UniProtKB/TrEMBL annotation:
<protein>
    <recommendedName>
        <fullName>DoxX</fullName>
    </recommendedName>
</protein>
<feature type="compositionally biased region" description="Basic and acidic residues">
    <location>
        <begin position="1"/>
        <end position="10"/>
    </location>
</feature>
<keyword id="KW-1133">Transmembrane helix</keyword>
<keyword id="KW-0472">Membrane</keyword>
<feature type="transmembrane region" description="Helical">
    <location>
        <begin position="29"/>
        <end position="49"/>
    </location>
</feature>
<feature type="region of interest" description="Disordered">
    <location>
        <begin position="449"/>
        <end position="477"/>
    </location>
</feature>
<feature type="region of interest" description="Disordered">
    <location>
        <begin position="1"/>
        <end position="20"/>
    </location>
</feature>
<keyword id="KW-0812">Transmembrane</keyword>
<feature type="compositionally biased region" description="Low complexity">
    <location>
        <begin position="449"/>
        <end position="468"/>
    </location>
</feature>
Length: 477
């Protein structure tokens, strides 16, 4: 028997039929609001996806994107956590010759293996790192009576068989040593007053020959000197980090601790300044103490740029010169893979998150999950340098207190995670429609199989209109 139960869903008041739109149900959302929310989702998805794919495009270049600088400059309560991910937050290893050289040796091995260099390419690569075995210049014949001085004979020689003047690649040639070699033919080319002699006439025989040989000798010495002044990258690194510890004091004469008879190495002063800043930052309670900590931080950044900047520039130049050795086919293999340290893991997670979550938001698939995960990711960007009271203000044109653009984007993403925008416009809506259609068909088939034919006919005759079916429930007794 079929009966109608009006008590389960009471009939609405008579005046409810006159109420429409949002006034009928405050939880309903206007169409324009739906459009704006979907547009907001698309805009944020586009911004995240573009940022991610731009970073992907840099991975095959000589300067791939990395989050290392962002993590090293982190401020706020989570500062130590983010900075610790880099392994060397203050770039102290860049001032250590052995540490940088070990990094270069590892890059050398991975470069040779990844690109399968030929023997000729390996020789040119070795010349970049350690320099050539010697420096040479063409010279057909030594001038008569000229002999390399004894103090230079250990690393300067003339080979008559190859007709080359040769300088040892490990010694190079200084300006003073070049002048000593040029002085050997000075009397032939210059008079007692230092004025250059006029070239003899060609018919003067021996005088012209000696003058011509002296001129060729001078040109050969100049050429070999120019070649011998080219330092290998390891030698340039040695100069930058070890050989001339007094040189930075000329640059940093404005910094305290670099005057007087008792000099302090500039890298030691850098370490002292870092320790002073950490103590000042940890103990700062008043505005004056915070300003003092900010002043120290600015001084540290200036000192770091001038100390570490040249070494990093040298490192980047080495990388560029290494890639110049490759053929187009070798370059097609992409950049050499980097070791899996914490920075590379963070970079990979960031790029993957930006590309994946941005794309999911654009197409409206798993929209709520994607919005929530993207909100957590951007929240991490916010916490790396939050604009909170007592935290050093981030450089740039923007000024914020507690709330900045990152936090606004976080709240927008969390709001999108609370709304079914993917069902309104996106793959989620298509899947939801297909699912409901499949479930409805399955339920109708199951109901048809379970109901007797006679009961089904009675039910069809006594079924209420569509409006009544929405209000009343049908129960079987």
């Amino acid at each position: 028997m079929i009966s109608v139960n009006p008590d389960r869903h009471p009939a609405p008041p008579a005046d409810s039929a006159r109420r429409t739109g949002a006034a009928a149900d405050p939880r309903r959302i206007a169409v324009i609001a739906c459009v704006l929310l979907v547009t907001l989702r698309l805009f944020i998805g586009w911004q995240l996806a573009y940022e991610g794919f731009w970073k992907v495009a840099t991975l095959d270049t000589t300067t791939p994107w990395t989050s290392e600088g962002y993590l090293k400059n982190a401020q706020g309560p989570f500062r130590d956590l983010f900075r610790g991910m880099t392994g060397d937050p203050d770039d102290l290893t860049w001032l250590d010759y052995d540490a940088v050289n070990d990094r270069w040796n590892d890059r050398y091995r991975r470069f040779v293996t990844h690109y399968d260099l030929s023997d000729a390419q390996k020789r040119r690569l070795d010349e970049l790192f350690v320099g050539p075995a010697d420096f040479r210049a063409e010279l057909a014949e030594f001038p008569e009576g000229v002999k390399v001085p004894k103090e230079l004979a250990d690393f300067v020689e003339f080979n008559p068989q190859t007709q080359r003047i040769i300088v040892d690649g490990r010694r190079h040639l200084t300006a003073d040593e070049k002048l000593k070699l040029l002085a050997l033919v000075e009397s032939t080319l210059y008079d007692d007053t230092g004025a250059e002699r006029k070239p003899p006439e060609m018919n003067e025989g021996e005088n012209y020959t000696n003058w011509e040989l002296a001129k060729q000798y001078t040109q050969a010495i100049e050429r070999v000197y120019q070649r011998a002044t080219n330092l290998s990258y390891r030698e340039r690194l040695d100069v930058a980090t070890r050989l001339d510890p007094e040189a930075p004091r000329v640059v940093f004469s404005n910094f305290k601790g670099t005057f007087g008879d008792d000099y302090t190495p500039i890298d030691s002063y850098y370490s002292v300044l870092l320790a002073e800043y950490e103590n000042a930052r940890a103990s700062a309670e008043t505005d004056f103490e915070r300003e003092h900590a900010e002043t120290l931080y600015g001084e540290i950044q200036e000192l770091k740029r001038a100390l570490v900047g040249p070494v990093k520039s040298l490192d980047a130049q080495l990388t560029n010169d290494m890639y110049k050795l490759l053929t187009p086919e070798q370059r097609a293999k992409g950049a050499i893979p980097q070791p899996w340290d914490t920075v590379r893991i963070a970079d990979t997670l960031t790029i993957t998150g930006l590309c994946t979550l941005g794309t999911l938001l654009l197409i409206g698939f798993l929209t709520r999950f994607s919005a929530a995960m993207a909100g957590l990711m951007v929240l991490g960007f916010y916490l790396a340098w939050p604009p909170w009271p007592g935290v050093v203000e981030a450089p740039g044109p923007d000024h914020a207190l507690v709330v900045n653009k990152n936090l606004i984007e976080v709240m927008a993403l969390f709001a999108l995670a609370a709304l079914p925008t993917g069902r309104w416009f996106g793959v989620d809506g298509l899947l939801h429609g297909l699912w409901n259609r499949w479930v409805g068909r399955k339920q109708r088939v199951a109901a048809a199989k379970a109901a007797p034919p006679s009961s089904t006919a009675v039910a069809e005759k006594s079924a209420p209109p569509a409006a009544a079916r929405d209000t009343y429930s049908v129960s079987r007794s």
